[in-house]
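Still learning folds. Look over my entry:

…
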Amino acid sequence: MPNPLEAIWNNLKISADNTNEPKSPFHVIEVGDCWKYVTMVEEFLRYEEMALNTTTDDEIIEMLTDVVKLCETHIKKISQFMKNEGIPLPDVTSSKPNSESKEIPLGVKLTDNEIANGIAFKVVTCLQACAMGQTSAIRNDIGMMFLGFYLDWSTFGPTLKTLMRKRGWLKVPPYYYPPGSPKL
């Protein structure tokens, strides 16, 4: 079975070996993956802004602040990459203004549980998009960029899961016990 660290090392060696070679043009899937990812993370950022306007919980605010920084870093990096390569940036929703949590009606206001589960869903979606972008990439610079994004999300995920488990918000499907298995 292949070792993941060995695969990363091999990828880094290939990137280092190809520094003097001219870059090949993008293929349509690489462009589409970049375009989709920047759009997705921009929309994710809008959700985080709404959540920051909604919650008053210090732990949720800290988690949201961390994920906002992560998203902004990814957006800046991939947007600059796309500009340098001549890929047009997508139109995205503009930033949300700050508002007071107490002024939001209860029927509209997200609960902290909803915020955490929404962030968890978006993290999983970003992980999948990064894996897809990395595996679809032929150019090493694109593959390494998506690998870096994937590792960032993988580092953030356990922090979110710990918070959700602590608060009882982690959604767990029903357990499966095959017929004939010993009762626990």
In short: The chain has one domain: 25-167. The chain has a mean pLDDT of 89.
